[in-house]
Design brief:
Elements: E1 18-20, E2 25-27, H1 29-45, E3 52-55, H2 60-69, E4 77-80, H3 86-95, E5 98-99, H4 104-107, E6 112-114, H5 119-131, H6 135-139, E7 144-145, H7 153-162, H8 175-184, H9 190-206
Parallel strand pairs: 3-4, 3-6, 4-5, 6-7
Antiparallel strand pairs: 1-2
Helix pairs in contact: 1-7, 2-7, 5-8, 5-9
The protein binds zinc ion.
Length: about 210
């Protein structure tokens, strides 16, 4: 959605580029990128002395996350790639990420697993897990973080364009994503609400 007359609600200087339906603000590309970086840094800084494994996927989120992680000490991060494609090879080379070869599920309790899912990807993933009764996928591990999950695909793509990074075409909507997409028309925050509902459930169960 474009509106040439809007000014960014954050910096109050630059021309706004994107309308955020969830918060009702207009924002410029620069402030959006900063917001994405701040969010990731805030989540990871709390655990900075620990080790992380990034799950490398063929999505824009993996590119964005690897770019942001470049500012952290390298020795804390490795990447695990369940398959190898041109994009993942490029990411590993460009950001000099060490590769983990062991089964990530075995080391999961000793390190944090970072999954670069966007808002759409995480909400559809959680819904699918519930529908298929794969509760353990959602609730078993406390060592998984989703630092990009407050940002939708479009926002991550703007980040990538702003930093001259590749954008990976989105995969076709699955059944679960379509369902959210329909409800979103009337309730723009549905995905955020769903993810925070799952977070509350997790806390309830772990108490
Ligand atoms: Zn701005």
């Amino acid at each position: 959605m474009f509106n040439k007359s809007s000014i960014c609600a954050v910096c109050k200087k630059r021309k706004a580029f994107l309308y955020l339906r969830a918060s009702g603000e207009w924002i410029c590309s620069r402030c959006l990128c900063r917001r994405i970086e701040k969010r990731v840094v805030k989540i990871l800084k709390k655990k900075i002395k620990e080790r992380f494994i990034v799950l490398g996927l063929s999505n824009t989120g993996t590119v964005v996350l690897s770019h942001i992680l470049a500012r952290f000490p390298k020795e804390n991060f490795s990447i695990y790639t369940p398959y190898d494609d041109v994009l993942l090879k490029w990411i590993k080379r460009r950001y000099k990420l060490r590769e983990v070869y062991s089964n990530i599920y075995e080391v999961q309790n000793r390190v944090w697993l970072i999954i670069p899912f966007s808002l759409e990807e995480l909400s559809a993933f959680f819904l699918k897990s519930i529908m298929k009764l794969y509760y353990p996928v959602i609730f078993a591990s406390k060592h998984i973080i989703f630092p990009l999950s407050s940002f939708d695909n479009q926002q991550l793509e703007i980040y990538a364009v702003y930093h001259k990074l590749p954008i990976i075409p989105r995969s076709e909507r699955d059944l679960y994503d379509k369902l959210f997409h329909e409800i979103e028309e009337k309730t723009p925050t549905i995905r955020h609400q769903f993810i925070s509902f799952i977070d509350s459930l997790k806390r309830l169960i772990s108490d």
